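Q: How do we represent a protein-ligand complex in a form that can be generated token by token?
A: Start from the inputs.
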Amino acid sequence: MDVSDLLDPRLLVVTGKGGVGKTSVAAALAVAAARFGRRTCLVEVEGRQSLSRLFATQPWDFTEREFRPGLFGLSIDPEASLREYLDMFYGARRLSRIVTSSSAVEFATSAAPGIKDVLLIGKVKEMERRRRADGRFAYDLIVVDAPPTGRIVNFLRAPDATTELVNVGPVRQQAQSVIEMLQDPARTHLQLVTLLEEMPVQETVESVAALRDLGVTVGPVVVNRVLEERLDEAARKALDDLDAEELRGVLAGADLAVDAAAAAALLDVGDAHLRRLDLQDRMRADLADRVALPLFELPYLWDDRFGPAEVERLADVIEAAL
Ligand SMILES: Nc1ncnc2c1ncn2[C@@H]1O[C@H](COP(=O)(O)OP(=O)(O)OP(=O)(O)O)[C@@H](O)[C@H]1O
Ligand SMILES: [Mg+2]
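Then emit the structure tokens for the protein with adenosine-5'-triphosphate bound:
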């Protein structure tokens, strides 16, 4: 596994702890892939419209739409998946219209919790296998903005649990072919996103182990929001050597008058920055050592608002590295 393998598979399931940047990273990976000329579909599964908001497009729904050249968006919901699934296997449009009310989905999913996930991943599998008229795959890459790490292992165990629950028929076949897709290293990578902080690192280490146990391939770990060194050698030395009074003197010499409290605050900010960089270094070494996977770092962007322009900037970093 190498950083250059980041966009290799046909399906990337992007996951990680809540709030680490799964949605942002999924978007940036898809944009980078589209720039390389790959027909790419971004998929949302939780119905939160996070991706359409990030790209400032119309809300996404169960119809794949090309929202910019080579880049498609889709929002999968279990009810629409169930309807499509019944159509596909039974050709029973009328039946499926009656069966797939929200309460029917509710019933099916409470009877066998795994079914909901089978339906969601089943839709992704259909897209992954779909061919165009000329025989090429419909999509070169599918990027799924998946649920947080806490749920992802269950999400992946779901088809397995369903296989046990539903021993016959097309649901079982569907569950099995979904597992096959997820466990095929040429087709699927689990794409973990993390931060260089204690809890996300710990959770990432545990997730990698659990995912490997489930027989899925984990791609290079994306480390998001990495702080850049903002102090040069001289500034570091000044922080080490000077007390607040001396700093005031130095700044006065440069025509910057600050009072004692401001000088002390400046030293504190500098120290905090150095401590965070130091923590980052330790977390990076710890993570790399414990997951035994290459790390791919994305910078912390200091913008008030994270929108389409910021996604492009993260995509720039990905593009440059590949
Ligand atoms: N590289 C970055 N630099 C600065 N801010 C970032 C970066 N990546 C993401 N963010 C910000 O961090 C926050 C969380 O990002 P995002 O929504 O992508 O996380 P998530 O893992 O999808 O969250 P959730 O678990 O709620 O789905 C957002 O406000 C986003 O704008
Ligand atoms: Mg998200």
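Residues 22-23, 50, 145 surround magnesium ion (ligand 2) (CB under 6 Å). The longest helix spans residues 260-291.
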